[in-house]
Amino acid sequence: MAQRTCLVVDDSLVVRKAARRIIEGFGFSVREAKDGQEALDACRESLPDGVLLDWNMPVMDGMTFLRAARAEFGPDRPRVVVCTTEAELARIIQALEAGAQEYVMKPFDADIIRDKFSQAGLIEDAA
């Protein structure tokens, strides 16, 4: 089976590096993008299995990227896990309605990412 791929999209280099380390630990090949436009370009180049997506970014924010990706690639690919400090239920619902499979609050750790990736269908549940 081909190695699974994930695109980590966040305007923070620190967050991208931390997420990359965790996700590579699950056996994924990881690419990074610093905003939604860069992420959309990366998806057009090679569609990843999953996207860990920040909400608040310059150039193109996470929701704009998500809607564009869903319009272009369909409802199920790539699997998108929104990762943000936005905690209000209304924002979570907005992300899910825009097409995200799951939602992660910052700060996150490996267990949280593993759980959300499992729920999003990106990794087999090891439990």
UniProtKB/TrEMBL annotation:
PROSITE patterns in UniProt: RESPONSE_REGULATORY
Q: Which residues form the Response regulatory domain?
A: 5-121
Keyword Phosphoprotein found: yes
Q: Which GO terms describe its biological process?
A: phosphorelay signal transduction system
Q: Which Pfam families match?
A: Response_reg (PF00072)
Q: Which Gene3D superfamilies match?
A: 3.40.50.2300
Q: Which SUPFAM superfamilies match?
A: CheY-like (SSF52172)
- Check the record and name the SMART domains matching this protein: REC
Specify whether Nucleotidyltransferase is a keyword of the entry. no
Superkingdom assignment: Bacteria
InterPro entries registered for this protein in UniProt: Bact_response_regulator, CheY-like_superfamily, Sig_transdc_resp-reg_receiver
Kindly state which keywords UniProt assigns to this record, in alphabetical order: Phosphoprotein
Q: Which residues carry this modification: 4-aspartylphosphate?
A: 54
Xref: PANTHER family: CHEY SUBFAMILY, STRESS RESPONSE REGULATOR PROTEIN 1
- The protein's name is Response regulator
Taxon lineage: Bacteria, Pseudomonadati, Pseudomonadota, Alphaproteobacteria, Acetobacterales
